[in-house]
Amino acid sequence: MKKFDFYYKWLLFDCYMVIFVGLFIAFMKATPLFIFDKFMNPYFWEAGKSIDTGTLEFQKFTYSLLGACMSVWGVLMLFIVKNSFIKRERWARNSLLFSLLVWFPIDEFFSIYYGVYFNAIFNIPFLLMLLIPLLLTRKEFELAK
User: Torsions phi, psi of 80, nearest 5?
Assistant: First the structure.
């Protein structure tokens, strides 16, 4: 029981982190605090070359969409964790697990395909922070009806 509570709180923290990171990406993309583009841009543009205004605006737009999608994913996971995962409803654990199993291979494939290894590496701890509590609570859900 205590272990389950620990992993439940771990998942709550993860959900809030996904929401926070998504909101940060969506709203802070044009500020000095936003460093992701400093890691991403070299994969697509030569160092020292200026990026035209249209491209920069499109980049900000795509960061906005990425941030919105991440935030919504975090909110959905939060509602599932707080309302059904805590009750050990099997569908809740499975939906969280399958969302990771859909996101990770697609994101990894395209990160590697486009040579954005920074993102591919960043995805691994992100996956593990969500996956570990789901795997370690598996027995709790097998016992539940």
Answer: -65, -45
Q: For 22-59, give the secondary structure using H, E and C.
A: HHHHHHHCCCCCCCHHHHHHHHCCCCCCCCCHHHHHHH
**How confident is the model over 22-77, as pLDDT tens digits?**
999 999 988 889 888 888 888 888 776 788 899 889 999 999 999 999 999 999 99
Residue 88, domain extent:
2-42+50-143
CB 3 within 8 A of CB 9: no
Structure-block tokens of residue 118: 């920074």
Phi, psi angle pair for 46, to nearest 5°: -65, 145
Cα separations in angstroms, 131 against 9, 88, 91, 116? 14, 16, 16, 23
Look at the chain and report how many structural domains it folds into.
1
